[in-house]
């Protein structure tokens, strides 16, 4: 440390879920952004005891009205001067509409001030994974209506399929999906996270993200970053990825003279895919992620041995033992970011974007 | 960075208010502890748009039942394995009783396991300041009932008066107040924050904290740390102080062989006041605080000039102008911790405890 935060003063509105224990949603996103110097306003859409992957939890959701009221509270005290907004999991269509309204409101304010680059919305369209929808059906059309107002979206492969209506089975269909997102919605920046297609130049046991910043004619400028898969199950990685993209995108744009003043921070057409701020940001984010996940996985192995022993010793029987093991596993898999802050600031690993 | 967190793996339950924008309650406490490597479970007792010093806010309180439910949620998933607990502002007597029950429950669990030092409760009895009570009258007796179960309390001068029933007007009465807290409640560790009594050996424009760890016979072992006052009005300093005390107390105890296994981390009678882990912790905490507050105050001056100009230019009149200026001032006074993380890890200033 000592060399200061990587971004200038940056005020971010982060809207996502809050868990008392563990690291998903705003619980990981807010800390990630604060650690890198952002002043984060954290609007929590739920307060749950723990994330739903444990299969049991307590707590309450925040209503659409409460979300709107909290935003009005910020407005009336001149606290709505946000440079960026990150929205993650929002429970239900009505609450999502309320969040979308906030983003559109902030966008309109920037337009009125004739400062088009002064507000940037990163939208993580949390709907499902691996073919399973884990939000209500009526949430999908709400996201489709909101994408056009966002500056950067971060769908996983399944969510990209839902939004683009293109089934992704290989590299050509992935390209078509990105094209559809740019052309149909006019969304300037897209990163599709955790693409698991096999490809001749991609080693097995690896994953990739594929990103693109559109040109003025809404053409794709796509890059790919391949990174080794880690043989552990984690929660909250998408939320951490999104939060770090907020910071690193801001940093990369700040380091490109004039870009921060352009609407949606859209690079000129002459800029190559591999030179995009989006690509530079994703490279750094993946390096930090890979280090934190590797360290979490190492600690997890030790914890799981202990958990196994505890369950074997315990008084539970049959299903009770299985349930306890699942709960202890879920806990052992919580991201260990607070123990490895240096991986955020200055990761030692490097990943490089390649042409897609 | 790079030299790792100052504490071993530490799981803290933090119970306090949450504000969307700004830095009071859990919003500053959770980040402070996470930045120093603690795994913090954040149980938010309210979600307000901003702190009440702005004189207007929106949001909702969490009920006593919801607080209890969230804790039950942690328990049922083996997530109640806390090393420490920090409780701050809790809205109302019923909610405070629910929080007190959680602490007593965790204390009882540690006792049943015959590991008396394995749980440590830091209780910040948030009731008022400078002669003004800002909680309901019925909250005071609840705190009086809970103090006996806490390990460390951090009242300000006014709160120390309420709890000890000793009016603090000079050094002898301050000593009597601490004596009363140790003897009546058996509270092992006390730090009275922001003592503003004048004293021959204390320069004007300075403040002090006075702390004491009792002996086995409940005698006081008091120390004082004098530090320069900063001519700025801040919010959230008490919450940041409490959070940092959690971490630095854990660190100081960890560096004292055998102490972590003793009930309430109570040093042996032979340990001098100035050698107490409580004194070592408070020295480090005040150094960090002083740096962050100094930097916040510097940035505030610049922001206030801008705010003044904005208000003069604005369309508001009379009371409207005053209100706007107050709101902009409140915002400018928010702690700038996220921009100065190095002041947490490794402050360059040093303060030393002296005999009281």
From TrEMBL, chains A, B:
Recorded GO CC terms: cytosol
Pfam families: Phos_pyr_kin
Coiled-coil ranges from the UniProt annotation: 297-324
Domain of life: Eukaryota
Database matches in SUPFAM superfamilies: Ribokinase-like
Pyridoxamine kinase/Phosphomethylpyrimidine kinase domain sequence ranges: 119-245
Keywords: ATP-binding, Coiled coil, Kinase, Nucleotide-binding, Transferase
EC numbers for this chain: 2.7.1.35
InterPro entries cross-referenced by the UniProt entry: PM/HMP-P_kinase-1 (IPR013749), PyrdxlKinase (IPR004625), Ribokinase-like (IPR029056)
GO biological process, one term: pyridoxal 5'-phosphate salvage
Keyword set includes Protein transport: no
GO molecular function terms attached to this record: ATP binding; pyridoxal kinase activity
Stored NCBIfam families: pyridox_kin (TIGR00687)
Similarity comment: family membership: Belongs to the pyridoxine kinase family.
Name this protein carries in UniProt: pyridoxal kinase
Classification lineage: Eukaryota, Fungi, Dikarya, Ascomycota, Pezizomycotina
